[in-house]
Amino acid sequence: MKIEFGKAFSYIFDDPKWFDKVIIPILYGLIPIVGWLVVSGYVMRVTRNVASGLEQPLPVCDFGEDLALGFKYFVVGLVYGLIPAFLGWILAICGALMGTDLPNFMFVFAMVLIVLLMIAYAIFLMLVMPVVQANVAVKNSIAAGFEFKNIFGMLGKNIPAWLLVVGGSILANMIAPIGFIAFGIGVIFTRMYAQLITANLEGQAYAVSQPAVEVIETVVATEAEAPAQEPTEARKEEAPTETPPDAPSGTPDVEA
Q: In terms of CB atoms within 10 Å, which of 56, 116, 167, 209 comes out highest?
């Protein structure tokens, strides 16, 4: 099974009710504070549906369910964001201490090292977070965002698929505004379109990254039962057919 890259850009319009389904989360997204959580949850439900193999993965927006799912991913993202926040805090301290009695080269070295670590972590997040988001979407739990064995297993098993997700996300955010502005549609549609493209690619990548399931046929008759039945059948076949004794003549002998 391979990723259908082009399908991610067109599947939305395969659903005859796509506009009715998409406009609702877009309008919810205009609500301050919680609106973007609803949009995030809706997009993740698309990922779940694609991973499940639904032909028309666009769901009907459910405010409560989408808000809950979006909040779960927000918590996961908050935890992953603690590391760059901590590194940025150390970077700020180093900058503040420059010009003091301590040697400046120590702070310069520390700042360069921290910046390199932040760049490396940003690349790491760019690769890992699509897997994390898909795992949270499918399993609908905060704990799924920290199943590192499963997450790195999927990433290592099919890294080309997840690189396509990253590339498709970048491409969607670049070309979506151009395509939609040409038809006179506003930026709120563009953002949703780009997110739905990424959601579809994440769902496809998640599906192809799952281990193959082997189907084993169950044998009804065991080896012990089979030989036990054969002699019985053989005896039936080999049993001689009893010949009935000659029946007496129906007409008695008449003496002359």
A: 209
